[in-house]
Design a protein that fits this description.
Blueprint (H helix, E strand, L loop, with lengths): L8 H17 L11 H13 L5 H21 L18
Helix pairs in contact: 1-2, 1-3, 2-3
């Protein structure tokens, strides 16, 4: 499954911070904004726990976001990169 919505890393991070602030503040959250399922789940858990939110809940949401961002970034094709690995003298695979 793909997530990230084709957004840049900066845009995903801004979206995450906006949704985290909403969840922590007891405000309505937007759904289907390009965050991953584990991040969404963690944010919903925070929103449901309001006002009894723990630091661990926030840390879990941040970990989920970082993990899913790495996956989304890795799935994004980077134009201009060579198809073959570069030959580096003395390097072994």
């Amino acid at each position: 499954m793909s997530f990230g919505g084709g957004h840049t890393a900066e845009a995903r991070h801004s979206t995450f911070e906006t949704e985290l602030s909403a969840a922590v503040g007891g405000q309505p959250m937007r759904m289907h904004v390009g965050l991953g399922p584990d991040t969404d789940s963690a944010l919903i858990s925070i929103a449901l726990a309001h006002p009894d939110i723990t630091d661990d809940m926030i840390a879990t949401a941040r970990r989920a976001f970082v993990t899913e961002s790495v996956v989304a970034d890795a799935a994004t094709e980077v134009p201009g990169l060579p198809e073959e690995p570069a030959a580096i003298p003395g390097a072994t695979l």
